[in-house]
Amino acid sequence: MNDFVFHSPTKFVFGRGYVDRTGTEMKQLGFEKVLVVYGQGSVERTGTLERVLASLDEAGITYVEAGGARPNPEVTFVREAIELARTHEVTGILAVGGGSSIDAAKAVSFGVPYDGDVWDFFAQKKPIEECLPLAVVLTLPAAGSEGSGSCVVSNDAENRKLGVSGDVFRPRLAIMDPELTFTLPAYQTAAGITDMIAHVCERYFSGVGAVPLTDGIACSIIRTLMSEAPKVLANPNNYDARANIMWAGTLAHNDLAGCGRSLSPTVRAGGWESHALEHELSAHHTEVTHGAGLAVVMPAWMRHVWRHDTKRFLSFARDVFGIEPEEGYESHRDAVYDAVTSAIKELQNFFGSIPKPVG
Amino acid sequence: MNDFVFHSPTKFVFGRGYVDRTGTEMKQLGFEKVLVVYGQGSVERTGTLERVLASLDEAGITYVEAGGARPNPEVTFVREAIELARTHEVTGILAVGGGSSIDAAKAVSFGVPYDGDVWDFFAQKKPIEECLPLAVVLTLPAAGSEGSGSCVVSNDAENRKLGVSGDVFRPRLAIMDPELTFTLPAYQTAAGITDMIAHVCERYFSGVGAVPLTDGIACSIIRTLMSEAPKVLANPNNYDARANIMWAGTLAHNDLAGCGRSLSPTVRAGGWESHALEHELSAHHTEVTHGAGLAVVMPAWMRHVWRHDTKRFLSFARDVFGIEPEEGYESHRDAVYDAVTSAIKELQNFFGSIPKPVG
């Protein structure tokens, strides 16, 4: 087990109807005047934004709104929101939405106290040391941004999509109300699940040897996602399945599934090859949903690399799919090939069994 | 999945030789003048205390020492340490040791800012709302107190051993250096592992239905402990096994293994029947190690109650031991009886296979 630092200070408040507690919970943590960051309309259509704002009013928290964060949020939106936050002298940020709104809000949270341009952080010109406190109401489980120290922003002018990491900007509070996800379209549900599985896989295939506890947790997350996915696709209002998926999305990316698998304790576990490839894809094609891109990229990446760490892929085959190399093959090599490629095929079949992310 | 609040804000700094980082890490979090709470000599004999104090000196953190916390720490020790902390006007607490030292330190941390007697909190006369910040150097993985919102203290005069819960007194920092556990005697190693398994089981058998993600994590923790235990008992210097056990001890009790299994989001998951029975035992017989008591109590409790939640015990049998009811029995009832009692027997065999906690 390699050395690690694990610091996930977010308070997760998880349950039915909990969106209406947003204001009370924020007030308890000292939030007073916030910038509310959200996306391009779904939180308005579903009534979620209205409920959130009502609960802020009730708790006596004042706010300014910054709507319009697009999927793969763009740095110009972030820059405008930073200006708005400064003009109104807010002392905290509230994101309402999925990974895009949360990542935009994170960038605002560390952009406000910084004199220069926020893109400097993504261009690695400047380390992130300070930020406004951030709360989150999660409506789309996928990116795990509600608990993670990750933030990814696009820069259309430069055709780039870059991420930064750091514990300092992890949310202080995450309101997680699985009922909010009942209205999610099957396609977005599926793309979210794909993203979660990818987050676990990137850490699992980090090139570090087995870490029984972390690996056991990682495989539990993947197995849960695979068992719960068909349930929500059959019945979008299946609360328990929605709840397990929502919580899995958080644990898939708050680094629990990477403890002991980092090459350095200050660096997140994993090579993040599939994510890097997918980011290039969606930087050039902003219409590609992140999870959809991953469903294509990841199995292809696996087929390309598995021979470099056969033992690891055999563990994956066994612990996720119950596939072990069969005896009686002419050569052990053939049996291993068969087990690993069967597992990759199973994963691809799973991605194919949920609403197809790409045509 | 039932509603829950999960807030585990502790920064875990985990790795080889990390005990020497104690001062630096504490300084980063703002600790300046602390009371160092420890036990009855082992941290002095092993040289751990010396290394910790040297790192405090180096970081410019001043300190006062309060050694002598006994196993099942006693409230008179806590009261004296509170006085010492007040006299020297410390602004933080550092525990060096296992659950007993940490629990004593926690009681000091919320006792200092309170005008009345610290036992009031345990006697449920007063809720815990305030505490001095607490850091921990863990030397004995067992109680999980380095990450938990639990604190158990004995009161000899009243023949009582009582616990309190609350997120407010969770440690801010936990230094976890598995190398410190190389010198742990086999008996204490085994008692610690028993305690960890019990922490997971209390939550698993909470009377709430299946929560696939939480249950998967719970069973991963138990399976890891069972697979790593023989390795450290065969070779006490097996770093990876020691590290997996140390981290398992934290996750067994920081409430991750209970998410969605609470009857109320503000109450910890589980009925804690085995712990309650064991606390009575060791309140009257302070020489009984907590883990040792649990190894006797828990399987007996399981045999007594399993018929009240057969489905749950069948899941436990399957997911921890791979035992399923065999077909071909005269009655399904016999097959279920056999599967469940086999699993309980396996657990008891495991407790028997590690150094026997009781003669």
Structural write-up:
2 copies of one chain form a homodimer. By secondary structure, chain A is an alpha/beta fold. The first copy, chain A, has 2 domains: 18-176, Rossmann fold (3-Layer(aba) Sandwich), CATH 3.40.50; 186-353, Dehydroquinate synthase-like - alpha domain (Dehydroquinate synthase-like, alpha domain), CATH 1.20.1090.10. Helix content of chain A is 47%, strand content 13%. Chain A is built from 13 helices and 9 strands. Chain A has helices at residues 22-28, 42-45, 48-59, 75-87, 99-111, 119-122, 186-204, 212-234, 239-251, 273-284, 290-305, 310-321, 332-353; strands spanning 4-7, 11-14, 33-38, 62-66, 92-97, 134-138, 150-155, 160-165, 173-176. In chain A, the strands form 2 sheets. The first copy, chain A, has a 6-stranded parallel β-sheet with strand order 2-9-6-5-3-4, with helices on both faces. A two-stranded antiparallel ribbon of chain A has the order 7-8. In chain A, strand 7 and strand 8 (160-165) form a beta hairpin. In chain A, helix 11 packs antiparallel against helix 13 (332-353). The longest helix of chain A has 23 residues, at 212-234. Chain A starts with a strand and ends in a 6-residue tail after the last helix. Strand 2 (11-14) of chain A pairs antiparallel with strand 1 (4-7) of chain B.
